[in-house]
Amino acid sequence: MARIAVIGAGMGSMAAAARLAVAGHRVAVYERAETYGGGVRRLERDGFGFDTGPGLLHLPAVYRDLFVKTGKEPLEQCVELSQVDPAGRHVFADGTEVALPNASRAGVVEALDAALGAGAGERWSELVNRARDVWEATRRPLLEEPLRKDWRLLGREPYPAVRKRGLFGRGRRPDTLADVARRELRDPRLVALLESYALAHGFDPVTVPPSAAVLPYIEQTFGSWYVRGGMRALARALYERCLARGVEFAFGSAVVGVLEKDGRAAGVELADGSVAEADSVVAGIDPRRLERMLSGTAGSPWQGHGLWEDGDVRPDPGTPARVPGRFTVCLALRGARPDGAAHRTVVHSADRGDELGSLFDPEPTLQERLCEFPTVTVVRPDDPTLVPDAEHETVTLSAVVPPHGPVDWLDEDAVRRDADRVVAIAEAAIPGLRDRLLWREVRTPADTAEETGAEGGSVPGPALAGAGGRQLHPANTGRVPGLYLVGGWSHPGGGLAHTGMSGALVAGLIVEGADWRGSQ
To answer: In 373-496, at which residue ranges do the beta strands (DSSP E only) sit?
Structure first.
């Protein structure tokens, strides 16, 4: 039985901890905060409850497998899981609205044709069919297997070229997702729909590779799922599974250093000066923090200590500083939630160019915070556990924003103005919203940074193929034997499903050895 020290109690860390405990290891988790879940947080006040992290689960099979492999009770016996329908409602800049059915290709085609005109559904369906090729080519190496030593093969673009019409038509492979949207969809509303999937994950559609088309494919193929009680209930179920398997948790215990002995990781040093020895260390934190724990400096986050092997991925050191965060406004409303209200509505930006510039300008200024017309996601759960009674409603608004640092998210007056703007935009989804408002609370990237330790409050996206490997994440193993990286900042990237898979990959590497290539 090996001793495993886990840094952080996020979803990926707990997924790894539960699997390792079942394999017979003694697992101790050290978390700087006073609770578990990482970015899967919940705000509670006056009988209202709000998810302040992800609001929906995609690829639930990841957690079904986790619960099957770590205990007798399957996922559905631990949480109440249901599909939301429609999967999403979209309000475009010209006022056009469309509700997309959950996990129904034919239903999506019909809905798009009805809302945007004949042929719109077919164009969207053809794109999603091509995205299926991306999924089939990358599912195992990008989600189900440890990152390969020959990871540069994943830098090749898997999205297929579209052949031109005519006898000698030859297609040219698009360079970015924006190229895909412009060439294959044409209608600006369909373009906005496709690009919104990239933006929701913190990607710039102007630079992200065409393989990002896999994001709507995943949602429309595997569905959008909600957990009664919010995603925090999923985090609680995983925490309780860890406890049932004998995992030990130490909250309020910040790790400040990783011990090394005889050339391998040998434990962790805590902020109170104590030491916890271990045979392996699993780090579920931002690799920039981990690098400094090893090197004792604030220098180059990826290369100073040589944490990752030459064959492993080193993302561009300049990229993480501009990974966006989330601006969230939690609204307590008087009045019941209307029957038939969509769980999620996306109110699209009236000026996408301005929005993308404010988010992804390589030389940001402190004035660039929330653009005039950001894309706002409105979440209205049909969940009686989140409200004090049937005559009230809980609503969460969110927008993708620059991280803390390039923008001062501690400026309370500016944050108040930003929240006013987001609420005003959300009235396109909920008319009369401000008249029903009892109170609101705001969460910014500065809050995310404080709660999770992620620098700037950035939220990592999933790994994507193409673009020379720039959208890949650091491998789960590196140059320091016995040290493993788990969670959204490591392979296979961010999002509930991907962080859950990172836990499975790290557990497999520890239990089966460095040559393990994933479950068959």
So the answer is: 376-379, 392-401, 437-443, 483-485
